[in-house]
Amino acid sequence: MTKSPPERIRPGSPITHQKYIKKTTISLSSCFSPKLSILLLTTCAILFFLYQIQSLHSSSPAFPPSWSLIHTLSNSTCSQNSHQDPLLRSMTEKLRESVTFLPLKDLRYADKAHQGHTWFMSSMYDTHMEGEVQYQQFPSEDSKSRLLCLKGRDNHDGSWNYYALAWPDTLPVNATLMKGLTFVSYNHYNYENIWHGLSAMVPFVAWHARNNCALPSRWVLYHWGELRHRMGTWLRTLMEATFDRTPYIETFEGIEDNDEPVCFEKAVVMRHNEGGMSRDRRIEVYDIMRCKARVYCNVSKEEDHAEKGKTVIGMTLFMRTGPRSFKNETAVTEIFGRECAKVEGCRLMMAYSNNLTFCDQVKIMSLTDILISPHGAQLTNMFLMDKNSSVMEFFPKGWLKLAGVGQYVYHWIASWSGMIHEGAWRDPDGETCPYPDSDPRCMSIYKSGRIGFNETYFSEWARDVLNEVKARKLEAAPAQHSASAATIPNIGCGCS
């Protein structure tokens, strides 16, 4: 669905900024005099030069309340008198021209690009309360009431895109003001892979839930400071479900010149993905997204997953094609099907992740208590299952030694979304590497390997997990029955 772009304003006259300028109740025109003009000009000049001492790279604490009061009064008086005094008007213009733009990607930090303050907007530090997301908000006390401004739309080199801060009444020359709330995302990976994309979106959902469910007018997406024009379909649909509106991806196509700045009435910047969030906080966020996705896709758990008091166990083989797929899908399906058939109420499903719509995946996951799948992005769907569901993961040969910590991402998301990761089976057989097994060059051979099977191991593993799941469901059944008769608590932002 195509949406018209959110409202934009091209500043350039005092009227444009009138609604953003704090006014005093004193009528300055009634007491205006040459001496007062000189005094006001001197005050504005002193404040301007004092402020320039505070560079963007300063990590000093926010100005004390006295500075904030002087800044508010000086903005108001300078703005009102600039229409009457050419010297004050000149000072305002100089403040506009003094806004300093810095590269979005700071190459000095290339060796630790996504650590600490990161190489994205490297002069800025995040607001971070224990257990919560790390974010920047503009305007705010930390930004000294300044707005975030961006310039450039290069999608190949982030060092050619720029950022700056400016006060609302002295925006850069030729700047366009974009009204409403803007979400600015920095992703060190990409927005097409559903795991990497989801990880970048989670903090925005957390901020949204903690800020009166505020809705973004637009999204600005960056990868290494390079502008990105889209999210993957799965991710875009999840965000549409979560925020009750189709995400508008801002690409600044309406800005004629790359050197023309764009400033935002309100902006929230995320650049650390889920870093800094507590497990409990992450579980809350995944609860919201699961609930919103089911509502969006019209999935009713009560109608589809229960069978008149019976304990139903949904076991799903979530298959891949190509890299990291099973070599013999028929044999694997038969093994798990045979064990499922031994347990009353067990239902086996098999699906391919690459030919399902978003809502197809939501529906299947809502019916799944045991998810069986090779390592891959499709496992990200696990958070759409009921909490305390089980995940069984499979790897080709060679990953344990060479794949690094990235091979554990689905252990992490299982924990963060309230699922139970039942472990992983790693195929001991596969392609032969001409180098020693620990040689990093072998990973290029093992990365896309296919996965065999071990009938004995798979059978015993499936039997154990089925017994655990059945016991959990029987234990939880009385509590679920009581909850269904009571009022279901609101999860957050209108979802229950």
Automatic annotation (TrEMBL):
Q: Which GO terms describe its cellular component?
A: Golgi membrane
Top-level taxon in the UniProt lineage: Eukaryota
Q: State the organism named in the record.
A: Tripterygium wilfordii (Thunder God vine)
Q: What is this protein called?
A: Glycosyltransferase 61 catalytic domain-containing protein
UniProt membrane topology term: Single-pass type II membrane protein
Key word Glycosyltransferase present: yes
Location within or outside the cell:
Golgi apparatus membrane
Q: What Gene Ontology molecular function terms does this protein carry? A: pentosyltransferase activity
Which UniProt keywords are given for this protein, alphabetically ordered?
Glycoprotein, Glycosyltransferase, Membrane, Transferase, Transmembrane, Transmembrane helix
UniProt cross-references to Pfam families, sorted A to Z: Glyco_transf_61
Where are its TM segments located?
A: 32-51
Please tell me whether the keyword Glycoprotein is annotated for this protein: yes
Q: Where is the Glycosyltransferase 61 catalytic domain?
A: 243-392
